[in-house]
């Protein structure tokens, strides 16, 4: 899956989750808020009904007038009303319209005189409102013993049942409308976020990816823009620099091939002219020779050819005379290591390069320049400054390092001699054997670990390093 579709999928999933969660929370909160408001409104209506009925009963006590009052109150209000009488009221006035409690909640309200609210169903809310006597009620109502009821006695209940169907339908319309609006807002926000992510992240990454793929296909004409995001800017910059380097190398390679081709043309002309001068015709016998002389090989082909030819080398030797210049150390180490490139695997070549690098460093820095190794450990920056200074001073400047080497398919020997005063190599080697954590002399330990044999002359300004190209190297 591409990063574009992956990010799009992630945003789509989170958007869907956000829509579902937000809509559920919105609907839940609005419905609970609506129920709470319905309860408050119903309680106020119940208080009004109770007050109106109580006033009518105190004033007239006529049931027909009470019924007329209820009809007036029900106009515009969707509720049903029922009276409940306490035992002493039933004993005094009897039961007129089945005014008895129907459940435990109503019986409890008759005993404790507290207002009760209960939602019998989703669309039905019941409020139980007690009629509690005051000092005026004792004139008309008596208890079970026939005495006037004292103030605070529950005479009965007003049970008012409200139908919330229409109100909830209206609320559902509002809730659905708000949910739809919220969904639209979240969706638009997700689309804008996706657009911003596409422009700010996906598109740049796609451009960088296309550029990298282009590098694999030798397309180095790349110019990625400077993106505002730090990470993208770093990646684009690295790709641009890589493309520039590869382009320069490609042009340099093409230039070298062209130069080689021109030299081959000149060589071909020269061979043909010499053949003509000798009275030879450039026929089928001469033409293959000219073709081989003028063949062009790239670096990999030459390395492979050298490796093939080296298999048949029985012996080789040479000598290098180097000035006191530390910058030559890596170049000479690699050069000498490359002489072994076919007789040993890469690991052994790198081993030879590393050991020779250390030996040449000792010869130039500590031998010809006579800089103490302690200075290198204590202050590396000062060590470098001192080396630069002594490169231009006598007698250090005129000193040379002589490198002799000889090799065959079984092994290689390198003799490195400087023109310094030498050093007590026996002391260093004995200390290295007894104290593996010593600071100075680690270079010798490295060479001993990498070479198969390590020898010094008596003064210590010449070292002979031997490598076994067939077995393990361990001095």
TrEMBL record:
InterPro entries: Anti-sigma-factor_SerPK (IPR050267), HATPase_C_sf (IPR036890), HATPase_dom (IPR003594). One of its GO terms (molecular function) is protein serine/threonine kinase activity. Residues 323-466 form the Histidine kinase/HSP90-like ATPase domain. SUPFAM superfamilies: ATPase domain of HSP90 chaperone/DNA topoisomerase II/histidine kinase. Keywords: Kinase, Membrane, Serine/threonine-protein kinase, Transferase, Transmembrane, Transmembrane helix. The chain crosses the membrane at residues 6-30, 174-197. Gene3D superfamilies: 3.30.450.290, 6.10.340.10, Histidine kinase-like ATPase, C-terminal domain. It holds the Pfam family HATPase_c_2. The keyword Transport does not apply. This is Histidine kinase/HSP90-like ATPase domain-containing protein. The lineage of its organism: unclassified sequences, metagenomes, ecological metagenomes.
């Amino acid at each position: 899956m591409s990063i574009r579709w992956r990010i799009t999928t992630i945003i789509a999933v989170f958007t869907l989750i956000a829509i579902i969660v937000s809509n559920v929370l919105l609907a839940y909160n609005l419905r609970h808020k609506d129920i709470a408001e319905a309860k408050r409104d119903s309680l106020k209506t119940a208080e009004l009904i109770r007050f109106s009925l109580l006033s009518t009963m105190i004033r007239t006590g006529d049931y027909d007038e009470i019924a007329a009052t209820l009809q007036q109150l029900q106009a515009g209000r969707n509720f049903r009303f029922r009276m409940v009488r306490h035992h002493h009221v039933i004993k005094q006035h009897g039961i007129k319209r089945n005014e008895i409690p129907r459940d435990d909640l109503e019986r409890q309200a008759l005993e404790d005189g507290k207002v009760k609210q209960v939602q019998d169903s989703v669309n039905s809310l019941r409020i139980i409102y007690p009629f509690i006597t005051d000092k005026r009620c004792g004139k008309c109502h008596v208890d079970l013993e026939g005495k006037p009821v004292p103030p605070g006695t529950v005479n009965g209940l007003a049970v008012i049942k409200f139908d919330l169907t229409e109100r909830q339908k209206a609320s559902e319309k509002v809730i659905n409308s708000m949910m739809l609006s919220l969904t639209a807002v979240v969706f638009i926000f997700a689309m804008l976020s996706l657009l911003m992510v596409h422009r700010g992240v996906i598109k740049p990454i796609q451009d960088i990816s296309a550029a990298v793929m282009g590098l694999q296909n030798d397309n180095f004409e790349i110019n990625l823009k400077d993106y505002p995001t730090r990470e993208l800017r770093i990646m684009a910059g690295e790709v641009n620099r890589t493309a520039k380097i590869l382009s320069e190398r490609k042009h340099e390679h093409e230039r070298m091939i062209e130069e080689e081709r021109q030299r081959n043309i000149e060589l071909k002309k020269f061979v043909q002219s010499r053949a003509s001068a000798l009275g030879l015709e450039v026929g089928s016998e001469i033409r293959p020779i000219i073709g081989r002389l003028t063949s062009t090989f790239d670096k990999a082909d030459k390395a492979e050819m050298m490796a093939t030819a080296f298999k048949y080398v029985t012996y080789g030797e040479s000598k290098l005379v180097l000035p006191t210049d530390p910058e030559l150390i890596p170049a000479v180490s690699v050069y000498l290591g490359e002489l072994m490139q076919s007789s040993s695997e890469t690991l052994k070549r790198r081993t030879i390069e590393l050991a020779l690098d250390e030996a040449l460093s000792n010869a130039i820095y500590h031998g010809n320049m006579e800089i103490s190794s302690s200075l290198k450990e204590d202050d590396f920056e000062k060590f470098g400054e001192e080396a630069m200074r002594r490169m231009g001073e006598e007698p250090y400047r005129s000193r040379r390092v002589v490198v002799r080497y000889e090799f065959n398919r079984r092994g290689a020997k390198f003799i490195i001699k400087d023109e310094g005063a030498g050093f007590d190599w026996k002391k260093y080697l004995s200390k290295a054997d007894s104290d593996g954590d010593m600071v100075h002399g680690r270079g010798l330990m490295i060479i001993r670990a990498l070479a198969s044999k390590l020898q010094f002359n008596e003064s210590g300004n010449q070292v002979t390093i031997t490598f076994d190209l067939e077995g393990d190297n361990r001095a």
